[in-house]
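If your schedule permits, I should be very grateful for your opinion on a structural question. What I wish to show you is a protein chain and, alongside it, a tokenised description of its three-dimensional fold. Would you kindly read the sequence against the tokens and tell me how you understand this chain to fold? Here, with my thanks, is the record as I have it:

===
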Amino acid sequence: MSDFFFARALMALSLAFHIVFAACGIGMPLLMVLAEGAWLRTRQPVYLELSQRWAKGTAILFAVGAVSGTVLSFELGLLWPGFMAQAGAIIGMPFSLEGFAFFAEAIFIGIYFYGRKRLPPLLHWLSGVVVAGSGVLSGIFVVTANAWMNAPTGFRFAHGRFTDLDPIAAMLNPASFHEVLHMTLAAFVATGFAVAAVHAFLLLRHPASRFHRRALGLALAVACVSIPLQIASGDLSARAVGRLQPVKLAAMEAHYRTQAGAPLLLGGMPHDATGTTDYALSLPRGLSLLLDDNPNATVIGLEAFPRDTWPNVRIVHWSFDLMVASGFMMLAVAGWVGWTWWRGRRPADHPRLLRALVLAGPLGFVAIETGWVVTEVGRQPWIIYQVIRTADAVTPMPGVAVPFIAFTVLYLVLAFVVVKLLRRLFVETAAAPSQLPSA
């Protein structure tokens, strides 16, 4: 395999690893703040204990996210100097603002940890609010840079150079709103369901634990409120992609031929050579209805675009279907939780529901990973859509296979350490909170 392949693979591996911690950096501080806010309101010691535990988990995930984010910064400079030389002046602003948000988050994490016994309770809680807000802002600024790559604006491109730069217009590009909304909600969904899964698992072992019952309630509140909003934002995003990147939308849906009343294809095996998708479940006129609220609307197919501008249809289509399937499975579990609450019963008292929550725990991160595959692979062969091709932006370095293998090992080690630390924090010490008075 070529150095070009390993250069792209190394970036993809680093992004896939980092995005998990970036999402946790958005979601975990919210849970931490909600727990401490519940303590301020009720003065129940269980909420204070919960906020302290979640704060420790937040710090662990933040530290690893900082390491993986630094690796990405080096890779942008070393492997993509062509891209940075051309686009650096435009995406420099959102990355600089992300740096300010990151440092604000780091500073206030320190204040939150070391000021617990030194600050008034309300002021201490407000420092946690700043941590949560900074985490959200950090994600927003990074996503606006990616959105610009999908819908580039705020410049003129002539003779291979960017001129008349307008960084504000670039940040407020047509893809920014739907990408920021979708990614922020995805972080809340993924973190909420993952944390709920941990405490649901521990409740199966310690049913009387007030600590895990309260933790499950707060995590489910975030997850169950966020997932229907996420599904709605997904519909908004798909319609926006259809307007801004119709070739990506066609690949997402394995839609080869332009037609009115286009069917919606679920699953299947796309074949570029024949323009068909075998074994798919076809919903007549479904795609036209979803994109235009009109079952007879015309949807542009891949055939309308030059063959060398198609992304890998199978990867994009399968990733999109897996993302959507994960979202609707979480929505179904959230509906079950809501039904249980509506009937005046507690989810913590239902072993079957707890087992379902454990199984649903990874789905949010599965959706995030596959969603970013759709976003990035679906834009190919462009690194900046219809402006610069990926092949012209990457600078393959000899021997990139060696750092690829080295970073793979590093990420595996980091993942093992994180799992070990979080297990010790929540699983191996589960007996301590279970000694609190039962609910």
Q: What stands out?
A: The mean pLDDT is 87. The two ends are 59 Å apart (CA to CA).
